Amino acid sequence: MDTAIQWLNDNSDMLLHFSIQAVIALLILFVGLKVAKTCDKLTVKAFEKRKIDKAVAGFVANIVYAAVFAATVLMALSQVGVETTSFIAILGAAGLAIGLALQGSLSNFASGVLIIILRPFKAGDYIEAGGKAGSVQKIEIFSTELKTPDNKVIIMPNSSIMSGAIVNFSREKTRRIDLVIGVGYDADLKQAKQVLKSVLDKEERILKEPAYNVAVLELADSSVNFVVRPWVNTSDYWPVYFELVENIKISLDEAGIAIPFPQMDVHLHKD
Q1: Which domain holds residue 24?
Q2: Are 39 and 47 a contacting pair, CB within 8 Å?
Q3: Regarding predicted confidence, which is higher, 141 or 14?
Q4: What is the Cα–Cα distance from 52 to 77, expressed in whole angstroms?
Q5: Coil, strand or helix at 214
Q6: In percent, how much of the chain has pLDDT > 70?
């Protein structure tokens, strides 16, 4: 006990100095974290002010936060006497080892950078990629967040998105609705075609240009199939789609034109 007290007395100046440096290092960390969060928010606001896609803003803000945080940690370590030059070298070697172990994460980061550069979609677009579909909510360093129409959230690795085909349903202002409507072989084809056209003519959300198309597609096994292809604004696609299907069925029924459906005849024989 006496030895410990003597050691403390002999090294009191050194311990005081180290304690002060440690407190300063902690203050640097505390302030640095606040600055990193502030930089994150300012980056997002700056992008929003310039009307840049919020998904891009989120991605860049994450990188800015990570950079400021890393600089803060190095400053704090330097304050307590750690040689940052050698520490950076150690971090580099450790980073290489970690990078080899976490190739998937690096691939996700690289894919995130490609998404930002190539811009195959933006926040709010409805896309299909990697076997999933939904509206893009935000793009982060390693993943992209999608929201499905039934309000499910999908967190997709960026590499899964960039490794295959990406279908963007929202990029173009207009879309074509493709419907196949079958009528019986005994139906008057000219009448059926006129009924289908009248349904389209009554729908105000269908665009005049490009003009819609109604034509016989094929002579199927049990029906004559018409193809019905009107163009609409992308935002109107599903509302018009659902209403057309309903109105076509009602109009064909009113015209006495039957839509074939699978049937099975059962014959019973009595001995």
Answers
A1: 1-118
A2: no
A3: 141
A4: 37
A5: strand
A6: 75
Let me know whether 37 and 132 are in one domain. Answer: no
Residues ≥6 apart with Cβ < 8 Å to 180 = 217, 225, 226, 227, 228
Count of structural domains within the chain? 3
- Phi and psi dihedrals of 122, rounded to 5? -135, 170
Do residues 55 and 122 lie in contact, with contact meaning Cβ atoms separated by under 8 Å? yes
Do 114 and 6 belong to one domain?
yes
pLDDT tens profile 53-86: 666 666 677 777 777 777 777 777 776 666 656 5
Given 168, 186, 202, the domain boundary residue is 168
Structure tokens at 217: 């597609």
Q: Residue 150 belongs to a domain with what CATH number?
A: 2.30.30.60
CATH number at residue 95: 1.10.287.1260
Distance CA 66, CA 51 (A): 24
Distance CA 46, CA 52 (A): 9
Beta strands in 86-147 (DSSP E): 126-129, 132-139, 143-147
Cut 0.85: pTM above it: no
